[in-house]
Design goal:
Layout: E1 11-13, E2 22-28, H1 31-38, E3 47-53, E4 60-64, E5 67-71, H2 73-76, E6 79-83
Antiparallel strand pairs: 1-6, 2-3, 2-6, 3-4, 4-5
Amino acid sequence: MGKHKATFVSMKRLSEIKPGKTVKVYSFESNDLFLKLMEMGCLPGEHIKVEQVAPLGDPISISVAGYSLSLRLNEARTIFVEEL
């Protein structure tokens, strides 16, 4: 039998990522948001950079697929990402 190397993926919600960090999209909890972001090229595997967080924490500004987008925290909570 071959040996299998266990891999650990550090998953977080996009709403938990600090400004300046780049992460990779893993999956979406909300189909509505998935369709909206998919139209802009944000698919699983795509890299997202958190650019800024508003002073009161909502919304956040991200860079993905050549776009700058603002997302509400409740939207960002539905996006699961992998830390790079």
